[in-house]
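My current task is to audit a protein record that another person submitted. My question to you is simply how this chain folds and whether the tokens agree. This is what I was given:
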Amino acid sequence: MRKSVLIAIAASVVALAGGGALFVRSLIDPEHVRQMLERQASNRLGQAVTIGRAELSWWPRAGVTLTDVTIGKPAAVTLARTQLSTAMRALLNRRIEDAEVSVHDSELDLALVLATLQRLSSAGASPGGSPGPTGGDAAPGDGSTSGLTLVNVRAIELQNVRIRAGSRAAVINVKSALAGDRLAIESASVESNVTSLKATGAMESLASRKGQLSITADALDLDGLMVFAQEFARQAMPANGTAATDRSGGAGGPLDLTLSIKAARGSAASVPFEQLAAAAHIEPGGVSIDPMTARMFGGGVESTLRLDLGGAEPAIAVRGVVKGLDMTRLTEFAEQPGAMTGTLNGTFSASGRGTDPAAALSRARGQGSATVTDGTVKGLQLVRPIVLAFGKPDAVQPTQGGERFSRLAADFSLAAAVLTLTNLVFESRDVQTDGAGTLALSKRTLDIRGNARLSKELTTQAGRDLVRYTVQDGRVTVPVTITGPLDAPQVGVNIAGVAERAIQNELKRRTESAIQDLFKRKRPQD
């Protein structure tokens, strides 16, 4: 990300310096230089360029200091102070050699800067474009920089430069150098209200647009990083936007940027994480992260992510595995403190479209499975409502803190912010429940239907009528509903279902009794 920003700055500054040979001929009048640079830079960039002031220096190095530079209307780039210097002898020989560029206290719009770079690259690659850097002399005022040969820029520095991408913004400081076609980033820092990171790396070839960057962060807004990365991917898409089938990247080579990311802490889709390690790849029309590992809620996550820009809205797809998540910490984050305890393991996959990762996942569809072990569900009382339904008010006391369980598991699918649960199993010492239902994420409400089976121990302690009317496979079994708020679910006993089972059990009992009587009558007399 910082590499292309540096390329944008260097291209803009070199374009502004395109009249270098001309201002050498105009040694006396800085105003003439200012006007000439404005005209030539505007022609070269295809956007309005204004320069507030130009100051010239000639010893020990030839240079120009530009203040209050704006590019575009409205301004996509504002450069408060820009300095460009080069060796005098080289400049007199129409060469920019051992140049130094510094940009201070400026502001850039990343999307428009990248679009300008794309136009510059396309113009240089087209048959009717400007000649290469070793081409013939430039005619005054024609906007060409071909009269100068760029040998190397030994230092490109950005100090306190604010860069914007959509609603995201960060302040960057960079030290880099350009040698031939290679842009080396010696150091870079990025600061925002969430992110604090440092980076090093190189754009190995500006022509082929291939490079890599190593990022280490004390704090990282992964969503923000994805927003910046998608601007690079979007600008690299062919004009018709068919990124899925054509990844040539337009002029120059196909975009091929690799990021190695390590972050001590941060957030992704508003979920906090620690110890993140990821490998990201930016190509025309898309960004992928594979693999990505992190610690969150006391456990670990291993996942992959793909952002595709081929449609009207960005599409994001994520899949992965969670291991050992602490449900106490997770429910606190979900603003449902104490709703559940235990340890979560599971798998998940989800995809959606939106202007940023958080928006896309809020409209996601997906599926997966989850298992929570050794925990409690706040407010859940399964055994007591069953016993009370059959007139045993003192048989079982309320369970403090909610029903404990050894295993709670389900498969799930996600659509329209509703989890549909299947193969739902709740296992505890006293009761086992099988069922299915829904969890409405926006309302945080449950609607579960299932069968609850008391343990053999409780079945032997139950009243004769309860056993007689509800027993199945030797255990009291009744249809139940679990409904209401997630942190205070209500358990109901389906009396109609109990009555139906009672009739079935009574018919079965009478049938068995009749068969036994029949065999007794047919038994031979001694």
